[in-house]
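Extended Data, panel c. Modelled sequence:
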Amino acid sequence: MVHHDDFFPDTPTMVVSFGWLMVLVVAIPVGIIYYGLLSLWFLEAFLILAMISIVLAIIWWYFRVRAAHPTYSANRTNTLIFSVVMGIVACWRLPTVMRSLETKVWQITADDARIMDAPCVAFVQDFNWNAQAPLSTARMPQCFIGNAHPNLPLCSSLDPNTLRSPQVNCDCSDMWPETVEESFIWHNQPYRVLNFCPSMDLFLTRPMAIMILHVFYDFNVSRAELEEDYYTNPLSNVAIYDPSLTLRIAADQNSTRLIPINANGITSISLIPNRRQYLNKNPVYDYTSTPSSIGAQGLVCDVSNTTGTYWKPCTAAVHVQFSTFAGMTTSEVKQMSPSAAIATVGGWFTFPLLFAAWLSGQAIKAKG
């Protein structure tokens, strides 16, 4: 018959019990240095494991060393083996799991829509650059859904079902602001902004449906030539952004950007409705845009008469359309969710528990 002390001798037990305490002592600084983990609950997890090991070591010391006639306990052996193996596994894998809980990654999913809200379009002028078209509301800008025709009904006068019909054609010019914002700071640079953002639900009901915007201005070629040292067509910029946002918010969170356009002609901008969602935030559109321009045959708004007699204000025409309603949503998520972390950690218990139970069973057989 094999005695329990032969099966589980004192010296190896002491080495195993206190050895993994040393693993903890080493694992804490290694985990901090290698993984860069400084969170308090990372340290607390290891302190709890260390506390458990100390209690188990005291139990072992009392029953194995101090007792005159130690009585073998298979249950205590099971607990000791389980805690030792579990401690080693925890030291090995816990830092990775905890880092996954803190790490943010981007997740891309396909997205599609049956109807799209008309985007906001801001005309943006760098007023320190004379080659840019000076924004003005002296002649009110225009807006059309569908083809531009005189005497179209106002979009605001149509019922929701008509606005959602595929062939809707209406005038949205009354949604322009009455004034130009004179000082909009963007990346520490001041701009003048004429911002079209619908005050009501305005839709593009099918791919390739067009929203047409017209902005009118006068241009001084002589002043532009003094700055640029050559004649150039007037330039401008547009920023297209999600109608659920303000231009200030869209600019601050980088969900819009400046698109240079030829202000003396027609610029067609094709959009793809991609969305971006930051952690714990609602998704917003960050449109992918492809602009193309056709210049006018001449400049009819030169107030300096350098290019000929002034005739009328020039028109910066921008045609906005969605080439498709299918896009991508890029979401910021944690690399591992709390529920996945709990499931992962719970899975670690399986093998150590089975191993400890098996080894304890062998000890019982040896005792018998």
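The first helix runs from residue 4 to 7. This feature is highlighted in the accompanying rendering.
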